Amino acid sequence: MSRDEPNASDEPVATEGRAGRRPTIYDIAQKVGLNPSTVSRALNKPGRTNAATEEKIRAAAAELGYRVNPMARSLPTGLTGTFAIVLPDITNPVHFELIRGAEQVARASGFTLIVSETEASADLELETIETLQPSVDGLLVVASRLADEELAALAREKPIVAANHSAPSLPSVIPDLVMGLTAAMDHLHDLGHGSVAYLGLGDIQINRARWDLTLDLATTRGISAVEITVDAPTVAGGADALRRVRASGVTAVLAYNDLVAHGLLRAARSGGVQLPESFSVIGFDDIFSAELAAPALTTLRSPLREIGTRAMQTLIDPERNRVPSKVVLPLELVVRESTAAPSVRTR
Amino acid sequence: MSRDEPNASDEPVATEGRAGRRPTIYDIAQKVGLNPSTVSRALNKPGRTNAATEEKIRAAAAELGYRVNPMARSLPTGLTGTFAIVLPDITNPVHFELIRGAEQVARASGFTLIVSETEASADLELETIETLQPSVDGLLVVASRLADEELAALAREKPIVAANHSAPSLPSVIPDLVMGLTAAMDHLHDLGHGSVAYLGLGDIQINRARWDLTLDLATTRGISAVEITVDAPTVAGGADALRRVRASGVTAVLAYNDLVAHGLLRAARSGGVQLPESFSVIGFDDIFSAELAAPALTTLRSPLREIGTRAMQTLIDPERNRVPSKVVLPLELVVRESTAAPSVRTR
DNA sequence: CACCATTTGTCAATCGGTTGCCAAGCTCTG
DNA sequence: CAGAGCTTGGCAACCGATTGACAAATGGTG
Fold first, then answer.
1. If you count residue pairs, one on A and one on B, with CB atoms under 8 Å apart, how many are there?
2. Is B134–A262 a contact, with Cβ atoms under 8 angstroms apart?
3. Is B1 a domain residue?
């Protein structure tokens, strides 16, 4: 099988298009002596051509190693066979499972997935969506920083589905905050906590929803609640918040996500602060590392994978992606070691 | 701002193409009274048209909100402005930073990134690459399961760069195994270990390279070495291996990656096995959760982000992506709590 | 056997850009 | 002021598919 052209010096190898370029439907048509349009129909419109003809064409296509050129196809049809997922931060483990869920559904249906990161910037998110729109059949926006009206305007161009946050004008797939936060507050209340700090992200929609609800549920139970804002939803952001948490005097903390909780745990450990003796911590999402931490993290398990799959299914289904439906998935409390009764100092 | 068409029942809203479709260069041409080809040149060939003309065209384009249609452009040029990254498992944190590095470089150069997962299957990887090829200008394959010859054959179609594993026929970007594993073995040797188990993945290229080298370095130092194969490079795979690790009687373990190491740590903790007293563990990659584990994981820090950026740079640069260059990046040992001298049982 | 209804394949336009070639218009020089 | 040389814009072909309209072929019926 040795290639017999090692003397390639004077060959037109420089440009990418080598002589034996990809076969097209014209090549197939010529080979079987039919019109290209017949080839196109044989390959894509079942029943539109004679079974024998179709078979002959398929055989020729297989022999030539033909593959449809998605770019060429998208021009007349306006359909690209591609979806994009737009998220604030690729490296946040929360998004991995979500991406995977979306990717698997897309691929199973023959679609390709473009992934794009917005670095948690609204401007960049807008720019990204606009740039991507001509190349895709729809978009999945995760934890968007854009206002509902902006998203609604963009969605007039191509369908958009919101994942992990709620956009009233769009179909959205979100975890059941009421269910999850109720369980978390009940848990703290049962343990005897009388105060809680919510470690949040400030003024973005997804964060507002959580804090408002937390406040409601806490006061209903006679628990005092304060909000402490972190700079970023990351380990570093959580670590930075330790001083303020301690200063606040609360006995329990509800973190915006597990990364923030992890940061708090790590800062506590390296600062010699005993957890959960000094204060309890509840995370959000249940990323894979939650159970690996010390102490293992009590957290709200978000059905990330399913959020991704359901969101992508909604996007693919033209029936549903236009109406602002809302899919709410269960959010369960997973109790591990980072929560305990307050003021039971072991030393 | 209330939309005045709630009575949409008889309107042609069903089909996606609404009346006010995207503007094209023909619209711009008409608006300024010039030929579409002039518009195309004004927008893309700096200096090819009169400055005044260009300005007029740009103004019209901006006013119309024109955006080039990537699909239409790719047809005559054969260039898509898109790259794909193909990896075995999206949810492995190892790949996050790598993806992010690649994505940032791609975006900074105006390219779009497609992400595709192969579920660690060679067949699926081949299928994926072939499917994606017509849609992209090149591919980044991470920890490929394909043989070098297969990759070389595929690379004749579109450029391919290998990341995190070495493919002799392709440009590759890899961590410096010799540097890293030497440091790891020196560390174990200094601590006084006389035996080590390598927790590997079996017969794939990236794993072979590590095990062969580990074996060399161990024997040179008079350390006995055995290979223990895990089913999957995951937390579950690592947890499963605990029994075999204990049975082997080694005092130290080198894991294929941090996920496997994490699994081992977790299984040990829940099984009441004290670490690092019973045996030391060294991971690979230094994913973000390594320092969060208990005990915090000693590991080889792989420059994931930089692997991603360098690989994407190589892919973008037509000078380099054809020659099988090899970029080797430093792999450093990060000592934390999971390694200690052997047989110093604290109890 | 004439005629109509289906099936099946062909023609040609189209999607939205890019680009080689050509010609008109301009400037500059001798 | 004629001619060379350069700049600038226009024409038309082309990339690889899809699809509406139509015609040829086929089969069935009275």
1. 134
2. no
3. no
CA dist., res. A230 & res. A238, Å (int) = 7
Strands B138-142 and B160-163, how do they pair?
Answer: parallel
Q: What DSSP designation does B188 have?
A: H
What are B130's two structure tokens?
């072939």
Contacts of A338 in chain B (CB under 8 A): none
Query: Do A273 and A205 have their domain in common?
Result: yes
User: Would you say the C-beta of B25 is within 7 Å of strand C?
Assistant: yes
Cβ atoms < 10 Å from Cβ of B36 = 14
Question: Where do we find the tokens 């991704």?
Answer: A308
C-beta of residue B298 within 8 angstroms of C-beta of residue B280: yes
Q: Identify the residue among A66, A69, A135 best suited for mutation to test binding to B, counting B beta carbons within 10 A and taking the highest.
A: A135
**What confidence tens digit (pLDDT) does each residue in B137-182 have?**
999 999 999 999 999 999 999 999 999 998 999 999 999 999 999 9
Q: Is A262 domain-assigned?
A: yes
Q: Say whether B292 and A294 touch across the interface (CB within 8 A).
A: yes
Q: What is the pLDDT along chain A (347 residues), one digit of tens a residue?
A: 333 333 333 333 322 333 457 899 999 999 999 999 999 999 998 888 888 889 999 999 999 999 999 999 999 999 999 999 999 988 888 888 999 999 999 999 999 999 999 988 899 999 999 999 999 999 999 999 999 999 999 999 999 999 999 999 999 999 999 999 999 999 999 999 999 999 999 888 889 999 999 999 999 999 999 999 999 999 999 999 999 999 999 999 999 999 999 999 999 999 999 999 999 999 999 998 999 898 999 999 999 999 999 999 999 997 887 788 999 999 999 999 999 999 744 33
Query: With a 7 Å cutoff on the CB, does A41 touch strand D?
Result: yes
Asked if the structure places residue B345 within a domain, the reply is no
Which residues in B lie closer than 8 A to residue A100 (C-beta atoms)?
A: 90-91, 117
Are residue A280 and residue A183 in the same domain, yes or no? yes
Residues 74-93 of A with CB under 7 A from strand C: 75-76
Backbone angles phi, psi at B345, to 5 degrees: -70, 130
* Cross-chain residue pair A103–B116, CB shorter than 8 Å: yes
Separation in Å, CA of B339 to nearest CA in chain A: 17
Torsion of CA A170, A173, A177, A178, to 10 degrees: 80
> B269 in a domain, yes or no?
yes
Find out whether A292 and B266 touch, Cβ atoms under 8 Å: yes
Which residues of chain B lie closer than 8 angstroms to A114, CB-CB? 82, 112-115
Q: What is the CATH number of the domain that holds A251?
A: 3.40.50.2300
From B160, B139, B136, select the one nearest B149 (Cα to Cα). Answer: B160
B167 plus B263 within the same structural domain: no
Q: Are residues B239 and B128 in the same domain?
A: no
Cβ-Cβ contacts under 8 Å, B112 against chain A: 114, 116, 132, 135
DSSP A164-198: SS--TTS-EEEE-HHHHHHHHHHHHHHHT--EEEE
Structural domain count, chain A: 3
Nearest by Cα to B327 from B216, B173, B175: B173
Residues A170 and A201 in one domain: no
Query: Containing domain of residue A42, as a range?
Result: 8-60
A162 lies in the same domain as A194: no
Say yes or no: A125 and A201 in one domain. Answer: no
- Cβ B325 to strand D below 7 Å: no
Q: Are residues A167 and A147 in the same domain?
A: yes
